């Protein structure tokens, strides 16, 4: 079985016809980028809250195909990851401006997966307007929170 076959069968098991979904793949260095396109009305079922279902499907793909494919599999559905990254950058900038204005730290009071925390950390550390700020993670597992604060 191939990755496209696997994903198309998954969509069929969830009630979509094979004609409603398409899969494309592209190699990018050490990554295999897998793009699954679905009708927008059905994409939420496969993306889930903050991409949790998408991340779970990606993990299943990695576990299923890791012996056959020597690249890291990265799944994207309907360009969700690009949109989410833009939203995270907006959230980081908003938090940074708030901290600079008030001097009070900003806590993201919900779990962010590692790659999403990385986007926020990078946004704060790479922006020359935010040299007075730092972003730190605290806690463990699903209780891990991200904080934007003034540098100590």
Structure description:
The model has no long low-confidence stretch (mean pLDDT 93). The protein has 152 residues and is α+β, with helices and mostly antiparallel strands. It has helices spanning 3-13, 40-47, 52-65, 80-102, 114-126; strands at 22-28, 31-37, 72-77, 106-108, 133-138, 145-150. It folds into two domains: 3-78, K homology (KH) domain (GMP Synthetase, Chain A, domain 3), CATH 3.30.300; 82-150, Ribosomal Protein S8, Chain: A, domain 1 (2-Layer Sandwich), CATH 3.30.1370. Helix 4 packs across helix 5. It contains five helices and six strands. Strands 1-2-3 form a three-stranded mixed β-sheet. Strands 4-6-5 form a three-stranded antiparallel β-sheet.
- The number of distinct helices, counting runs of at least 4 residues, comes to 5
Going by CATH, the homologous superfamily of the largest domain would be: K homology (KH) domain
Low-confidence stretches: none
Intertermini distance: 54 Å
Reported CATH architecture of the largest domain: 2-Layer Sandwich
Strand content: 15-25%
Radius of gyration: 18 Å
- Tally the structural domains: 2
CATH topology of the largest domain: GMP Synthetase, Chain A, domain 3
Indicate the CATH class of the largest domain: Alpha Beta
| Oligomeric state of this protein | single chain
Number of strands: 6
Q: State the secondary-structure class.
A: alpha+beta
Helix and strand sequence: HEEHHEHEHEE
Instruction: Characterize the main sheet.
Output: 3 strands, mixed
The chain-level mean pLDDT equals 93
Residue share in helix: 40-55%
